[in-house]
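Lecture notes, unit on binding sites. The following record was shown on slide 14. It pairs a sequence with guanine.
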Amino acid sequence: MNEADCLHSQAEVDACIGRVAEEITAVLHDCNPVVFCVMNGGLIFAGQLLTRLNFPLEQSYLHATRYRNETRGGDLFWKAKPEVSFIDRDVLIVDDILDEGHTLMAIIDFCKHAGARNVHTAVLLDKQHERKADPSFKADFVGIECEDRYVFGYGMDYKGYWRNAAGIYAVKGM
Ligand SMILES: O=P(O)(O)OC[C@H]1O[C@H](OP(=O)(O)OP(=O)(O)O)[C@H](O)[C@@H]1O
Ligand SMILES: Nc1nc2[nH]cnc2c(=O)[nH]1
């Protein structure tokens, strides 16, 4: 942490979450959505976002992971599938980061096959690089387009630690 670079300050991230909340409100305020936090990384973004969504919604969580506290992704592993029914409902998936996109695309696929009417996605960060699983895939709501480094803070870990960092940090040399 002492050697990490701060890429985005708490004030900057906070303002971005406010803007994303306004964008989501404009689209989903009368849709009666179910909002799923993708654990673990989505926890802080979802928490700070949800109190700014001033319309009726249900909230739940799911847990899918590719990284398992490592800095390289592998196969998607479901730790907890959604328990709230979202058949014929609008679903909003909230996650911390869209990196290669495998995780979010697999979750969308799952929700659509399980009967969701519309699946919307919100990510705090969209990492900019040429390794996207599907370059045409974009999240509907994005807080910050971040540089291509391994980042932590605001829910994202470095080897399991520092999800609690109040800012977006990049590991030195990564
Ligand atoms: O776009 P991708 O390359 O698929 O990566 C993005 C995913 O990676 C992280 O989850 P991780 O698997 O690290 O689980 P965690 O949230 O429990 O740390 C993050 O929270 C996203 O869900
Ligand atoms: N913590 C963390 N998790 C990720 N999952 C995919 N990319 C990243 C990243 O840059 N940082």
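Take-home: Residues 10-28 form the longest helix (19 residues).
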